[in-house]
Design brief:
The protein has about 600 residues and is an all-alpha fold. It has a single domain (about 40-155, about 175-575), classed as Amino acid/polyamine transporter I, CATH 1.20.1740. It is built from 23 helices and 4 strands. It has a two-stranded antiparallel ribbon with strand order 1-4. It is globular.
Length: about 600
């Protein structure tokens, strides 16, 4: 049937969600939440948050390892069935509830531990992610030297390059610079031997946190202005690097290696697991950053359009970044007379060893090196903005008095300084081992479980029909075909997305069991692996703890408590604090009568 779901409420009739007028003499209300200066600031912030270092050093490697161009088939299928549905779910939750990762679970209090788990993951990631930015700072400063200190033209590397004589089995000058001068890892025997702090790297880490603090000092108003530069300038640099790479001898060999198709790879479960995990992590799902940034949107912002623009833009960036990487690596392979596969690796090894070495072979190498590490710095800062914003927003939503000017600045300063102190362990001589451990386990099975429960909780506890109705209420001005789009998302939320997340989770556990963690030739001890598993469990354990707390706040039998804890609170949703955003819009959409069965609200 055709119904008008946006009927104007009688302005005289009090709404069930309206706050009563404040009594005379009551304390001053808490400072209001900020809002984005404009839609473009939100779009660029989300795009900068999603387009991170993984787009540069992880996706191209996964693409060539999993069949080249064939990898794009499972990659874009996972985007449609996992990435887009979860992305829309997070944006919609944040925008409709106008709340951060913890407070937003007023829609289903029994799942409030999911929000706490998101903050645990964001905190762990923030600790090690800014260390990558510190590395980029270090290399950026070193790039102003000529010749580059990791090139064979540097006097200190002459003997090393002569001994290596183009062989892939010997350490290159770039590897020596990375391991000895930057990390100092040659002075550490492993995880249990961190050694002393690399003080130059510690200063770079401090500078990185100061930059983050200054950029976020004014809240989303200031960071929303910064992203106009940090989210767009990397695209300009990427375009320049692609054009420069295309002119190099051997570049076509690198691109051919990147896109070579091996159709037999599609029969491997690992290819599909890699595609799902890459979509999952590159979009920033489950960290709370998307949810927090969406909470500052206007109520009638079109979240469906934003989801399509940001998610597709992020995935296309990953694909095109591969051309910039492999065209230059192809030139390096030609110069050293070795296969392209011998210089292609994933993670920090690509960004701080292989690619810098390739850039050192170009005429005017300091210029190209400055551009590349400036791009890495901006990509990293944008992602870190989202993680810190998630933590900041969650705390201020629980304690609204902290939104006041000086208290807000003090909260941000305490967060940044605390993360800096914790990050000092990662800039010791054995810090790379701790970095690898946190990087591997902080965003492993714990993050997948958090997202899986978020999806199942919204679909079954809160109600998928109610959730779709909330989205339709927000987007207002939209063509009727949006109802069919939401129908497709509904099928994903109920079936495809949870099943694929479960598949990814099982494969992650199998990988953990069958493949021991390594950094180079160093194999992590059993106690180190156990510590890493505890990091993953730390985020998961918040979910049952949150459920127990929610049940304790209810009354009645255990069955009654469960039923009440799975119902939205009266204070759920933006309408609970303001009716200004509810407007009349001449728009109709075809929905079944069952879509208008509103679940009862908990009295808590």
């Amino acid at each position: 049937m055709h119904v008008n779901i946006f009927q104007t409420q009688d302005p005289i009739t009090p709404q069930p969600w309206a706050e009563p007028p404040a009594p005379v003499g009551s304390p001053a209300p808490n400072p209001p939440r900020d809002t984005w200066a404009g839609r473009h600031a939100f779009l660029l912030s989300c795009l900068g948050y999603c387009v991170g270092l993984g787009n540069v050093w992880r996706f191209p490697y996964l693409c060539y390892r999993n069949g080249g161009g064939v990898f794009l088939i499972p990659y874009f299928l996972m985007l449609l069935l996992v990435g887009l549905p979860l992305f829309l779910m997070e944006l919609s939750l944040g925008q409709y509830g106008a709340a951060g990762p913890i407070t937003v679970w007023k829609c289903c209090p029994i799942l409030q531990g999911v929000g706490v788990g998101m903050l645990v993951v964001s905190s762990l990631v923030s600790i090690y992610y800014n260390v990558i930015i510190a590395w980029a700072f270090y290399y950026l400063g070193s790039s102003f030297q000529s010749p580059l200190p990791w090139s064979c033209d540097a006097p200190r590397n002459a003997e090393l390059c002569q001994n290596a004589s183009g062989s892939a089995t010997h350490a290159s000058a770039s590897e020596a610079f990375w391991n000895e001068q930057v990390l100092g890892v040659t002075h550490s025997s492993g995880l249990g031997d961190p050694g002393s702090v690399q003080w130059l790297l510690a200063l770079c880490l401090l500078a990185a946190w100061i930059v983050v603090f200054l950029c976020m000092l004014g809240g989303i108003r200031s960071s929303g202005k910064v992203v106009y530069i940090t989210a767009t300038f990397p695209y300009l640099i990427l375009l320049v690097l692609i054009m420069r790479g295309a002119t190099l001898p051997g570049s076509l060999d690198g691109v051919r290696f990147y896109l070579s198709s091996d159709w037999s790879k599609l029969l491997s479960a690992r290819v599909w697991s890699d595609a799902a995990s890459q979509i999952f992590y590159s979009l920033g799902i489950g960290f709370g950053g998307l949810l927090s940034m969406a909470s500052y949107n206007k109520f009638d912002n079109n979240v469906v359009r934003d989801t399509l623009v940001i998610a597709i833009g992020n995935c296309c960036t990953s694909f095109f970044a591969g051309f910039a990487i492999f065209s230059v690596l192809g030139h390096m392979a030609l110069k050293r007379d070795i296969p392209v596969g011998s210089v292609a690796e994933s993670g920090p090894g690509l960004a701080f060893v292989a690619y810098p070495e390739a850039l050192s072979l170009l005429p005017g190498s300091p210029f190209w090196s400055i551009l590349f590490f400036l791009m890495l710095f901006m990509l990293g800062v944008d992602t870190l903005f989202g993680n810190i914003e998630a933590i900041n927003t969650a705390i201020m939503d629980e304690f609204p008095a902290l939104r006041e000017g000086k208290r807000k600045v003090m909260l941000l300063a305490v967060l940044c300084f605390s993360f800096y102190l914790l990050g000092l362990l990662l800039v010791t001589q054995g810090g790379i081992f701790w970095f690898t451990l946190i990087d591997t386990y902080s965003t492993s099975f714990g993050l997948i479980i958090i997202t899986l429960l978020m999806c199942i909780g919204i679909a079954s506890c809160y109600g998928i029909e109610q959730f779709c109705r909330d989205i339709v209420t927000m987007i207002c001005r939209c063509p009727p075909w949006y109802s069919r789009v939401l129908g497709c998302f509904k099928v994903c939320w109920v079936f495809f997305t949870p099943c694929l997340l479960l598949f990814t989770l099982i494969f992650t556990f199998l990988d953990m069991y069958n493949i021991p963690l390594h950094y180079g030739t160093y194999e992590f001890p059993a106690w180190g692996t156990s510590l890493g598993v505890c990091m993953g469990v730390l985020s998961c354990v918040q979910i049952p703890i949150g459920a127990i707390v929610a049940l304790c706040h209810q009354t009645g039998t255990l069955s009654d408590r469960f039923q009440k804890a799975m119902q939205p609170l009266h204070s759920w949703g933006r309408a609970a604090s303001s009716t200004e955003d509810i407007i009349e819009v001449p728009f109709t959409i075809t929905l079944s009568s069952s879509d208008f069965t509103t679940p009862p609200h908990s009295e808590s």
